[in-house]
Amino acid sequence: MGELDSFEILPDHAVVSLGPNGVPRSGWQRTKRASRWHRPYAAILIVLDVLGVALSTLIARTTLQNANVGFEDEPGLFDLITYAALPAVWLLVLWGHGAYDRRYLGAGTDEFKRVVRASWTVVAIVAFAAFAFKIQLSRFSVGFALVAGLVFVLLMRYVARRALALARTKFHLATHRMLLIGTLQEALEVHSAIARDPAAGLVPVGIHLTEGYAPHPHTVTPVPVHAGRDILSLVRELNADTIAVCGSASAEPVELRRLAWQLEGTGIDLAVAPQLTDIAGPRVHIRPIEGIPLLYVEEPKLSGVGWLFKNVLDRVLALLGLLICLPFFPFIALAIKLSDPGPIFFRQPRVGREGKTFRVWKLRTMYVDAEERQALLDDQNESDGLLFKIKNDPRVFKVGRWLRASSIDELPQLINVLMGEMSVVGPRPLPAEDGDFLGDVRRRLLVRPGITGLWQVSGRSDLSWDDAVRLDLYYVDNWSLVLDLHTMWRTVWVVVFRKGAY
Asked: Which residues form the Bacterial sugar transferase domain (predicted)?
């Protein structure tokens, strides 16, 4: 990284005094970010938040009686408080909790967590104000308005997040142009991880090598690769607004510190991608010791109150699901029988938690001789892993194709969930006849397999075996109730649009 300490980046608009490192030192001038998509987006969020709070108050007033108790003689004051003061306080508290901070907008769950915390603060402020000024308010109406306000704000922000993701994936707007710095292998690993989530808005535009030479111009790489270039001129040439230091390059403290100094006041973001992959934020904690930021990685939490709640939730959802689906099973069974005489259900040995074998329940979607015909189709297998997959599998009858596309064939697995053999969310259950799992694949046996999971909401049969294993291991290492609920929500949309189902 010899090139990193030899350049200076100065904003063209800066007319301020310079420090010893050539960095603007004015305490009053705000740095203009090179990427400015967050400004109009934050303005839209402010409008949506005000609308959400006002809408919750309006619904409370129109649907509940005595909503303005204590202000019967002063309706104008009540309107001023509910439609002006309350939204203003809510916005200030949201701003104070960082809900408009560009670092948390557009990706991750931090934005929504901050909205929830801010809403609790608003509840405390309203309660304190009512107590301090002895205001006679309808407690139910106030509580309804505050809870509805939280729901509407979260819902509108979710809609805004989906619109932002659409703008990024379809129209390539509101993105960060990122220059990756590191060895070629480390930079390509980071590039591959970023490319898996285009909705995050990170677009690698180049790689600058810290070791070795740039490959031959005809060598195929996802982005141009440079070596021995001046970083400043390269950033300007690529019109980048973010620099990501990858892998071992991030372990060079002196060069990294100098790079951070040089970027002060330029509006260019500096990100560090350490050699920790597929480990979610809740397990990672930074603890500074004498100026050294130590990155602690906690063990996965596969026990405790949260895990107990997951088991209870699994049983409750399975029981409710079976009761709801029960009236429709006779019609589905008749359709299967008319398509091909034979059993209605298909049961196959699968490997569960801690390597225990169980028989999974599924609605039969193939002809009864499907197992025998598989040997004739082995050369057409489109899966590169333990599972056998063909897009237009001739062994699947017509009704079976519809059952697979709509994922209805998976519903009998609720019986496995009710019996404690499976979970609603978890790694995909693999056939038992493949024997002992080797290497990293064994780690997925720490939890019960699931009806749905990250593999299903990320492409299902369209995924490669390596990607499916990576997602399953990510789930095991980063399990949380929030992850389960988020996966269930995403499953609904995957099933509706029939993504990757065949």
From this structure: 310-496
* Phi, psi (deg, nearest 5) at residue 175: -115, 165
For the CA atoms of 243, 247, 253, 258, the dihedral, rounded to the nearest 10 degrees, stands at -20
pTM check: above 0.85: no
Instruction: Note the helical H segments in 15-109.
Output: 38-63, 75-80, 86-96
pLDDT at 150: 94
pLDDT of the residue at 231: 83
pLDDT in tens, 336-380: 999 988 899 999 899 888 888 999 999 999 988 877 777 777 666
Q: Which tokens is 298 given?
A: 């906690």
Predicted confidence at residue 386, as pLDDT, reads 60
Give how far Cα 380 sits from Cα of 74, 386, 463, Å. 77, 14, 17
CA–CA dist 325, 412 (Å, integer): 9
Q: Which of 350, 319, 348 is nearest to 430 (CA)?
A: 350
What does the DSSP assignment read for 407-423?
TGGGTTHHHHHHTTS-E
Q: Are strands 430-431 and 345-351 parallel, antiparallel or unpaired?
A: antiparallel
Q: State how far the Cα of 151 lies from the Cα of 452, in Å rounded to an integer.
A: 26
CA-based end-to-end distance of the chain: 49
Q: How far apart are CA 198 and CA 176, in angstroms?
A: 11
Q: Check: CB of residue 94 under 8 Å from CB of residue 118.
A: yes
List phi, psi (to 5°) of 420.
Answer: 85, 10
Q: Which domains does the chain have, with CATH numbers?
A: 2-34+175-275 (3.40.50.720), 38-170 (no CATH), 305-497 (no CATH)
Q: Hunting for tokens 């705000």 — which residue is that?
A: 30
- Packing angle, helices 329-339 and 398-405, rounded to 10: 140
The C-alpha atoms of residue 446 and residue 14 are separated, in whole angstroms, by: 56
Q: What is the mean pLDDT of the chain?
A: 82
Among candidates 117, 122, 67, 72, which has minimal Cα distance to 97? Answer: 117
Distances (CA, A) of 423 to 155, 355, 448, 449: 28, 15, 6, 6
**pLDDT < 70: residue spans in the chain:** 1-31, 64-75, 135-138, 250-251, 275-282, 285, 287-294, 378-388, 433-438, 460-462, 498-502
Query: How would you class 46 by CB atoms within 10 Å of its CB: exposed for 0-12, middle for 13-18, buried for 19 or more?
Result: middle
Alpha-helix runs per DSSP H in 64-174: 75-80, 86-96, 110-132, 139-171
